[in-house]
């Protein structure tokens, strides 16, 4: 009994929670535009990166997408299968829908097929490591025109965080962002609020704080003379 009490009394280790990393739109768009779309590989890489950036999908969700999951007609959308076999539908931006349609047509996949859209050079489904390799290779090329990217740690999850941050900065409420990204709890979504320094600056500007006088009060000579006469 005493041992159990001592074990339960052990405090959890305190850790520093890191802020989420995300990319500003100009850097994100530069990476997406890097692949050479005159080649089959380049068109696939562009479509994959665009899909990750515009949907906020996890890598596992993206590589599992098939033509039957995609609705190109209005309203364009995609069915994502997340953790725990949970499904959610995410809207597709016009450019993303068009790129996916072109990729499906190029590969001559029938629209009701359950074959994966994103495949490697051997027509095998892309793996998580394959996606990471594509992103690293693309970012390396992008740094030649945007050298500051070399100081940024970029992973497929960075694209997901960038989408979450874009939604937040566009005024989308946290509950909607939670559903969009498939978070278990809105507490996970709240991390974007913590990471958005610009929103904190705007909040500070809205605060009606009175201006303070930086100089200490100095009584006039008349007041000093009166005090000395007491």
Helix-strand blueprint:
Layout: H1 2-8, H2 25-33, H3 40-55, H4 59-63, E1 70-71, E2 77-81, E3 87-91, H5 94-106, H6 128-142, H7 156-169, H8 174-181, H9 186-189, H10 191-195, H11 197-206, H12 221-229
Helix pairs in contact: 2-3, 3-5, 3-7
State the gist of this model:
By secondary structure, this protein is mainly α. The protein contains 12 helices and 3 strands, in the order ααααβββαααααααα.
Tell me what the structure shows.
The protein has 230 residues and is mostly helical. It has a single domain (25-197), classed as Intergrase catalytic core (hpI Integrase, Chain A), CATH 1.10.443.10. Helices cover 50% and strands 5% of the residues. The chain is built from twelve helices and three strands; from the N terminus they run ααααβββαααααααα.
Considering the chains and any ligands shown, give keywords for the structure.
230 residues, mainly alpha, hpI Integrase, Chain A, 3-stranded antiparallel β-sheet, 12 helices, 3 strands, 50% helix, 5% strand, elongated
């Amino acid at each position: 009994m005493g041992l159990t009490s001592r074990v339960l009394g052990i405090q959890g280790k305190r850790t520093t929670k890191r802020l989420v990393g995300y990319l500003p739109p100009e850097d994100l768009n530069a990476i997406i535009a890097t692949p050479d779309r005159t080649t089959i590989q380049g068109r696939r890489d562009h479509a994959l990166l665009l899909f990750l950036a515009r949907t906020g999908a996890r890598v596992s969700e993206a590589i599992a997408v098939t033509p039957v999951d995609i609705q190109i007609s209005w309203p364009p959308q995609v069915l994502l299968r997340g953790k725990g076999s949970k499904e959610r539908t995410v809207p597709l931006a016009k450019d993303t829908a068009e790129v996916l349609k072109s990729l499906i047509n190029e590969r001559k996949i029938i629209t009701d097929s359950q074959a994966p859209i994103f495949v490697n050079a051997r027509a095998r489904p892309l793996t998580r490591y394959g996606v990471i390799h594509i992103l690293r290779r693309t970012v390396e090329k992008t740094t030649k025109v945007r050298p500051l990217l070399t100081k940024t740690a970029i992973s497929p999850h960075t694209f997901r965080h960038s989408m979450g941050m874009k939604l937040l900065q566009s005024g989308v409420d946290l509950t909607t962002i939670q559903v969009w990204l498939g978070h278990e709890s809105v507490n996970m979504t709240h991390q974007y609020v913590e990471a958005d320094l610009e929103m904190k600056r705007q909040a500070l500007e809205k605060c009606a704080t009175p201006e303070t006088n930086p100089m200490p009060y100095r009584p006039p000579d008349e007041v000093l003379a009166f005090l000395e006469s007491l």
